[in-house]
Each structure stands twice: as C-alpha cells, then as structure tokens.
Design brief:
Layout lengths: L3 E2 L19 E4 L2 E3 L6 E3 L6 E2 L4 E2 L6 H4 L2 E5 L13 E7 L2 H6 L1 H12 L10 E7 L3 E5 L8 E5 L15 E2 L4 H14 L10 H12 L4 E7 L34 H11 L2 E7 L7 H4 L1 H4 L5 E3 L9 H16 L3 E10 L3 E7 L3 E4 L2 E7 L6 E6 L8 E12 L4 E11 L4 H6 L3 H18 L2 H22 L17 H9 L12 H13 L2 H8 L2 E4 L9 E3 L2 E3 L4 E2 L11 E5 L3 E6 L5 H8 L20 H15 L6 E6 L2 H7 L14 H13 L1
Parallel strand pairs: 1-7, 8-9, 8-13, 13-14, 14-15, 28-29
Antiparallel strand pairs: 2-3, 3-4, 5-6, 7-22, 9-10, 9-12, 10-11, 16-19, 16-21, 17-20, 18-19, 21-22, 23-26, 23-27, 24-25, 27-28
Helix pairs in contact: 3-4, 3-9, 5-6, 11-12, 11-13, 12-13, 12-19, 16-17
C-alpha cells in the first residue's frame, strides 16, 4: 500500500536536497528543519493543503510526512530526456552445445506464454538476436509475411544490418514475434557449429539498444571462444579442494566490465542466464551484469533431459523474470545525518559520482548494502537518519521517485548498542566485505578476517560491558547466534576451503551474497528446519481457499532430527525433505506416493499432487514458502543413510576445513585467539 504523491512541488531541503519525511521538525506552520543537515527551510504554499483530508493549514499531516516510504510522480525537472519506453532484447546462444542443452524450446515457450504479461505499455519494443560463430538478426517489421534472418559473419567489426526493423513495437509486430518464437527451436536443431561469439553479440546488442536504453537478456551455455571477449579455461580441477588458496576469482579480461560501463552510460542493463555443464569463467562473464545493474542466473549441469530439477527451476525463474516489475534509466542516492558518511556500496551498479549509483535497470529482487563511518561526534544528536531515493522510469513510461527514510536512536550506553544490534544485517555485510577481500587479497585472508570479527567482538563485549566472570564465550542476547552464523559463512561455497568446489559455483555464490535480499541469504547461511510428519492446522493461515499450515521452526541441530520423522530444511535456493528410516508410513504413502520407506526412489526431486488432506497441506506449505521469495527453489527427497546426509547436509555434519569441524571447536578456537 504505497502512498503515491502527485504534486507540483516536491519539497526538499535547500541545502542537502533531502526529501521531506516523517522525521523533520516543524518549527511553526511556515518553517521546517531538515533532519539530516539541520537547515531551516520554508514550507511552500502548496504544501499547506492536504490532498488526503482535503483540509488546509496542517502541513505535518501530509502523506509524505506521515509515511517513511513514499513514491513521488516526478516533474520534467527530473528528466534529462522524455521517459523511455520498455525495450527488451533477447540474445540467444544457438551453438551445438546450446542446442544439446535444450534450453531454447523452453525459453520460447515461456516467452510466448508471457508475451502479454511483459511489463510495458503501447510503446513496448522487442528484438531478438542469436549467435554461434556468427551473429544473426531478425527483421520483424510490421507487414512482412514472415520474420527475416540477417547474418553478420564479420564478428571483428559487427555492424547493424538494418536500423529500424530489428527492434519493433510489440503490439504492431506481435504475430511475427510469435512466429519467430515458434520456429526458433527447430531452426538450429541440426547445427554443428561449436563456437560461441558472445563478445561480438553483446557489442551488437549495445549498438541496437543505444538509441533508447532498456534490458538485454543473454542466454549463454559455454566459454566464449571467438571474437572480442573470448576466454580460455583457467580452472584446474585438481585445485577444487585446495586449502592453500583459490586462484582466478577476478576477471581474465576487462572487456566485459568496459562494455558494461558503456551499456550503463546508455541506460542498458544486461541480465545473464548461464546454463552450462562445463567451466565458463563466470568471474569474467559476471562483469557484464555487475556493472550494468543487471541480474545473474546460473544453472550448473543444465540439461533438459538429464537434469529435470534444474529445468523446472529455470522455467519457474524465467516466468517470474519475464513478468516481474522493472524500472528503467534509474539512479539512487543514499543520504545520511551530518557527522556520518557512506564509503562503500555492495550490489550490482556503477558508482557514477561519489554517492550516486547508476542503475540502468532496477527490479524488486535485488538488494544493496552500504558501509558507513562516523566522521564527527554524534554527542549532540539523539537521532541518526538515512534516506534512500531512487529515481526511475516505470514500465508505463512514468518518471517516479521512491523514497525510504530510516531513523535510528543515538545512545550513550554501549550496552544499548549491543541490545539493538541486527545480527543478520551484520553477518551479511561482513560476508560482502569478506568476498571483496578474497578478490582483492586472498581467500584465506578473508576467512581470517571473519574469524577475527568474532574474536574482536567477543573481546570488546567482555572488556566493556559484561563484568561477569563467566568462562567461555560470552555474547549479548541479540548477538548470540553471531559466532554460529560466522562458522556457517566459512562453510558456504563462496568462502569454504578444503571441500571440492567448482570455480564457477564459487563465483556464483559470491555474486549471490552481493546481490540477494537478506532473508534469502540468511536461509542459505542458516537454513530453516521444520518437522512435517506431525503437521497440524493449529495456527494455520487461511489464504483464499487454501489452508497453509505453520509448523514451528526448529533449532538447526542434528539433535532435532529423530528416527521417526520427516523434516524439511529450507536452504533458500533448495529444499531438502529428509525422511527417516522409521518415518510414519502414512506420511510416505500420502505425501510421496510410495507404499513404504524402502520404495522411495534414490533421486526423487518432486512432491506428487495426491488427492488427500496431508498431501494438500504439505504442498500448500511448500508453495507458500516458494511464493514468498524471488528465486525458485528445487526440492530433493533425502533418505536416512550416511552418504545422503554427508552430501546434502553440510549444515549439520562435520566440516573438514582448518578453522572448525564443529561449533564447540569453533568456540574453543575463538577463546584461544582471545587469550593470544
């Protein structure tokens, strides 16, 4: 329920440009004091009228002073050019490798199904290009009897074969677009072309999109082997479980970063779907999305027949991706109270000036983190405020400003700081800092820094606040899971050592930490555990006509698993349903559709739709978990045997890394470090 405000004057501080918000002070009806720089400003006449109550003379009751999140419809002062239309270009790899993986058919089906749901208006434009060792464009000009393919084989100097017929109005050329999507999957089915000229295809996309800006969606299945931006394999499979350090976490070339910055300058965001079974140098490829404010999707070992779980995840992700909200040509600025300053940002963007983030595209599924420092004493202030303002063009071509304002108390007692600490935000910010450190320095350096963060924290608490003579690791209540979260971070694909980890999978995990929303990250670090075999309707939610049970969250410990239960572990991007040996046969029969425990197949990865109350309840709960997140999660049914536990539960079993094999050992390690 976002308050949307249309007003001729958007009231802002004359000095620091903060938007008026609930935390400003009205000195009288005609003057207000900024909560960030403390300047006194005049209240404009128009602001005296309240459009909600239709009354005059109460500026403090206006919606922008009553709500800490608002959206303004911006005037022409906030435009460098008329708002752009929604423009979508799809760049599809069609080499033999891509055809073999089989993604094209499912992409075309999904886009056909969602063509009318793409965000936009009557001006929406679309275009397609495909590539292998050459780049192919498609003329979709209204009036043609069928789409025309135009091939550019000079990949060292890519040019656009036609300027007005390749990006077309979706409404006018809809039939041709549908025809192209119907014929694309078979067009390349006999291809023997093994090369992939990704770089030249991206250069072509940049030229096509530069006049308007918009979104480029790239599908890639292998290492780019031809033309600009071609790459060689840098992974040594023998080093996957090394404890010495990990090489090649940074890009092999600056081609993709440079191109992304050019794209950002022309308001083009590039999203990358990587569906590969071999090493594809994601460390280099990810730069195209990272610096153009794009998104990254990765499906290791993708194959439409051999990997049905990945295929289902790809289809679900694609459906959401094509229909989710999108903003174009955006910039975001974060301001904070005098005395504080922001020095580092985490996420996908380009920092245009010291504090202005350039976001060619913006979507609801990406997150940003910021680090700030205290420059001057805050002794005279009782509050610290932060304001994030995002200026963007909606898919309907409206210029809008989304403003969030946060106000936090400044306290004089250190114990109040500890009591108010947000342990999850701290953990995820440290994870971002560790990932930066592992790229700029080394992975082991980053891991040491995480352990030191716990040591420093516990030591500081012990010396300054807790005067208890307790032995062991003493932490304040709000932070009691902090050492556990850090241990869990050290076991994540992004940061672990000593456990075999493919380089691309490590890089993708690092990218996830830098861009995903906090609840999603926390489920990956410290999964949610539920017991499902004794599920009841007590406390259930009633949504539409569905009853959604709400089983209790359990402590994440192997002690909570029993020999006669069925437990769901929600790890954010994957669900594990663990069935113990003596699990109730009714659960096995009604939910999994198997007569008994022994008959559960080894690689089961879906829950059948069975017509009985227990099946309906379990599926309703799983659907509810799935609906509340940005990325789809695959499900694996795990039987109770040692090998399955070891493969699927790194969160519950011992870890071979050097820091700790169990939580108790980790705490002992922290104590030893403190005594040093």
């Amino acid at each position: 329920q976002l308050p949307v405000i249309t007003s001729n004057t958007i009231v802002r501080c004359r000095s620091c440009r903060t938007y008026i918000n609930p935390f400003v002070t009205f000195l009288d009806q005609r003057r207000w004091k900024c909560n960030l720089c403390y300047r006194v400003n005049d209240v404009p006449d128009e602001f005296m009228y309240n459009p909600v109550t239709r009354s005059y003379g109460e500026p403090h009751k206006r919606p922008e002073v009553q709500n800490s999140t608002v959206e303004f419809i911006a005037s022409s002062d906030y435009m460098l050019r008329p708002p752009q239309p929604a423009v979508y270009l799809f760049a599809l790899e069609v080499s033999h490798n891509a055809v073999e993986a089989g993604y094209l058919k499912y992409f075309c089906e999904s886009l056909l199904e969602n063509l009318d749901k793409l965000p936009g208006d009557a001006r929406t434009r679309v275009g397609f290009l495909t590539f292998d060792s050459t780049v192919h464009f498609y003329n979709l000009q209204e009036g043609l009897s069928q789409p025309q393919m135009l091939v550019v084989s000079d990949i060292d100097d890519v040019f656009i074969p036609s300027h007005d017929s390749l990006m077309v109005n979706l409404k006018e050329s809809k039939e041709l677009v549908k025809e192209l999507l119907t014929s694309l999957p078979t067009m390349f089915s006999q291809s023997r072309e093994t090369h992939s000229a990704l770089g030249p295809a991206l250069q072509a996309a940049f030229k096509l999109m530069s006049p308007t800006g918009g979104r480029v969606t790239v599908f890639q299945t292998q290492l780019p082997t031809l033309g600009a931006g071609k790459l060689q394999s840098r992974e040594d499979p023998n080093q996957r479980s090394s404890t010495k350090g990990v090489q090649h976490l940074g890009p092999a070339t600056d081609f993709y970063k440079k191109l992304a910055l050019d794209c950002s300058g022309q308001q083009i965001g590039v999203d990358l779907f990587l569906l590969s079974s071999q090493y594809a140098d994601l460390a280099s490829l990810a730069c195209i999305s990272k610096y153009s404010a794009g998104s990254l999707f990765y499906y290791p070992s993708f194959h439409y027949i051999h990997n049905p779980a990945q295929l289902e995840k790809f289809q679900r992700d694609l459906d959401r991706y094509l229909t989710r909200k999108i903003g174009f040509e955006a910039v975001m600025r974060i301001r904070c109270t005098k005395g504080l300053s922001i020095h580092t940002f985490h996420g996908n963007f380009f920092v245009r000036s010291t504090d202005l983030l350039s976001l060619a595209n913006v979507n609801p599924d990406s997150a940003f983190a910021v680090q700030m420092s205290i420059e001057d004493s805050l002794a005279d202030s009782s509050l610290a405020c932060f304001q994030a303002a995002l200026l963007y063009t909606s898919s309907k071509g409206k210029r809008r400003i989304r403003v969030h304002t946060l106000c936090l108390p400044v306290v004089s007692q250190l114990s109040d700081v500890y009591a108010g600490a947000d342990v999850q935000a701290i953990t995820c910010l440290l994870a971002n800092m560790a990932i930066d450190r592992s790229i700029s320095s080394t992975l082991s350096d980053a891991r040491d820094a995480l352990v030191n963060a716990v040591v420093d924290f516990v030591s500081a608490y012990k010396s300054s606040v807790s005067n208890l003579q307790q032995s062991g690791v003493v932490v304040p209540a709000a932070m009691r899971l902090f050492p556990l979260y850090i241990l869990a971070l050290l076991k994540q694909k992004a940061l672990r050592t000593g456990t075999s980890t493919r380089l691309d999978e490590r890089i993708y995990a690092m990218c996830e930490f830098k861009t995903q929303p906090l609840p999603q990250l926390m489920r990956m670090v410290h999964p949610d555990l539920y017991r499902l075999d004794n599920i009841t309707d007590q406390g259930a939610l009633h949504l539409n006509d569905t009853v959604v049970p709400q089983p209790h969250l359990l402590h994440l410990s192997a002690e909570r698993l029993s020999r006669d239960g069925a437990f769901l572990m929600d790890c954010g991007n994957v669900f594990y349903l663990w069935i113990s040996k003596c699990c109730n046969e009714m659960f096995v029969r009604d939910v999994l559709g198997c007569p008994n425990y022994a008959s559960i197949p080894p690689n089961m990865n879906h829950i059948p739709e069975l017509q009985n109350p227990l099946s309906e309840r379990v599926r309703a709960f799983l659907d509810w978990l799935q609906d509340n997140r940005a990325f789809s999660s695959s499900i694996h049914i795990v039987k109770d045997d040692a090998s399955a536990k070891a493969t699927l539960f790194p969160h519950l079993v011992e870890d071979r890394s050097d820091v700790a094999s169990s939580y108790q050992e980790f705490l002992q390690h922290i104590q030893q470090q403190m005594s040093k």
